[in-house]
Amino acid sequence: MQNNLLVYLNLTIYSIYIETKNNINHYCYNATIYGVANMSSEKEIVNFWYNKKGYFTINNIKTTNNRDAGLLALRFENDNVEEFNHIGVSCSITNNINETTDLKKSISNVIKNKFEDTGIQEAINQNIKQFNVNKAKLRRIIVIGAVPKSRKKEIVDEFNNKLVEVIEIENILFNVMNDLDTKYYQNDIVRSLQLVKFFLLSQPEKLGEIIASSLSQTSRKELISNMLEKKEVIKEFRMTNKDRLGDIIKSSKIKPNDLVDILDKTVLTSRSRKGFVENVVKNEKMKSILDDAMENGFKEERKEIPLNEFF
After folding, report:
1. Helix, strand, coil shares of the chain as percentages rounded to 5?
2. Span 246-273, mean pLDDT?
3. In the beta sheet, which residues pair with residue 84?
4. What is the pLDDT at residue 35?
5. Which sequence spans correspond to the domains of the chain?
């Protein structure tokens, strides 16, 4: 009886041990994969993006003096590490690297602080010693904020010259939000992006207000230009009323001769051209102009006379 009781107690203790061990491992796995440990929002997004691409990530790595050492993203093939990425995240809305006067010095400082610091290298080595890692496969990647087109090549080339690849956070954000579906995400940052995508960006009026308030005039022009290149957007103009279309043409500052070319070459067909002319003639204002032109002729545009003709 005592032996049976001892066996029962041992089995119970062992079961509790296994369950506790599994819970600890589950928590550690979640801390690695889902960012349970506290990370910045941009690091959470980068971490999630690499997970979605099939990488195992080690995040929230700290040095002995509690400095942030970035992320590690590893891709395995059997028991070997096929890809080994050390990722630094440097995103600021108000203090961008492109605003510096000495670009080379600024980029050198970023690389030193994110990758070459002794404490950071020790922390990285400490975290990868459990894996079969070929350090020759190490790729250093920096995730940075918005980069203006005017300096993009200069910035990317300078990082590449120092063996650091560049990824813009906007590209990661786009990929993450574009791939988000309607299932529930436990990660608060990803869940917030999901709410923005399905509850805010799906409302045209509110989206329009955000665009109008957050984009510069140049960015708004680029946005409209890119949208007008989409066939789906052009089709929507079929539903545009004539008053709004008139405002668009008026604001475009198209010259009369250019407008005639547009109508003739891209809008009117051989069948609709006749109807267009008939309607022009029927319009009272246009008719009076045409009658006056028929009677007095069209006035030629005044040409500038060179000064030397006055002497």
Report:
1. 65, 10, 25
2. 80
3. 74, 138
4. 39
5. 39-181, 253-297
